[in-house]
Fold this sequence. Notes:
By secondary structure, the chain is α/β, with parallel strands linked by helices. It has a single domain (4-255), classed as 4-Layer Sandwich (Purple Acid Phosphatase, chain A, domain 2), CATH 3.60.21.10. Helix content is 27%, strand content 22%. It has six helices and eleven strands. It has helices at residues 34-58, 88-100, 114-117, 124-131, 166-180, 220-225; strands at residues 4-9, 63-67, 106-110, 135-137, 139-144, 147-152, 189-192, 199-203, 206-210, 233-239, 245-251. The strands form two sheets. A six-stranded mixed sheet has the order 4-3-2-1-10-11, covered by helices on one side. The protein has a five-stranded mixed sheet with strand order 5-6-7-9-8, covered by helices on one side. Strand 2 (63-67), helix 2 and strand 3 (106-110) form a beta-alpha-beta unit. The protein is globular and about 60 Å long. The protein starts with a strand and ends in a 13-residue tail after the last strand.
Amino acid sequence: MAEKRIVFISDLHCGHRAGLTPPDWQSEFRAGSKTQRNKFAELQRELWLFYAETINELRPVDVLVVNGDAIDGKGSLSGGTEQREQDRIEQIDMAAACIQFVEAPTVVMTYGTAYHTGQAEDWELLVANAVGAEKIGSHEWLEVNGVVFDCKHHIGTSSIPHGRFTAIARDKLWNELWASHDEQPKADVLVRSHCHYHIHCGGADWLALTTPALQGMGSKYGSRRCSGRVDVGLVWFDVADDGSYAWDTAIARLDAQRAEPLHV
C-alpha cells in the first residue's frame, strides 16, 4: 500500500447565489439591488478561486468524499429569490463540474438534506452518475489503509460555541454501540457536515469533526436568524500505509463577505 490523500468537501449548494459556482456559470446575479448583484458576483469569483487554488495544491487526490448538499434546490422558502440558477438539472451540471475539477479517481458521496436535494427524489444520485461515483448513500464507511471513516451529512447544531461538540461526540458514541453489536464498522474518524462550521474533538484513538462548507454567507435565514460563525473551506487527510494519518483544513477568508459599518 502507498500513502493516500482523501479530501472531504460538502455543502456546495450549487445554484445558490453564495454557493460554489464554476466559472462557466458565474455572471451578475439577476435579482436584488445593483449592490447585491455585484456582491454575489464577486463572492462567486472569490470562492471559486479559493477552491481551485486549494485543490491544485492538494493534487493528486486519491479519494474525494462529497458529504452532502451538492446542490441547493429550488429555494422554495425564499421564493427562489436567492437562487443563481433554479433549474436542478443545471445545478447538477454545476456540481458535477466542481467534483470533476478535483480529478480524483475515486469519488464517494452521501445524500444531503431533503429540502435542498429532493423531498421525494434524490437529485444527488444524478450528480453521482454524472461523475462516475463509486457509491452514494445515506451513511457510508470508507476504509483507507486500515483507517475507517464514518461519513454522513446531517448532524445536530448548537447556538452556543461550547455546545457544538456534543452532537459529534454523541454520534461517535452511537457508532461505538452499533459496532459493539457488529452492526457498523468501528470508526477511527467520524465526519459530519450540514452545520457550515468546522469543529473537531477526539481521544487517543478517535477523531470526530464537522466539515466547513463550500457555500459562503448569503441566505436570508442565516443572516436574519442565526448568530454563529460560518466556516468556508475543506478538509483533507494523508493516510500512510501503516494506518497513521495527518490531517488539515483550508479555511477561506473572503473579502466579499466582510461586514462594514454604515457611516452616517
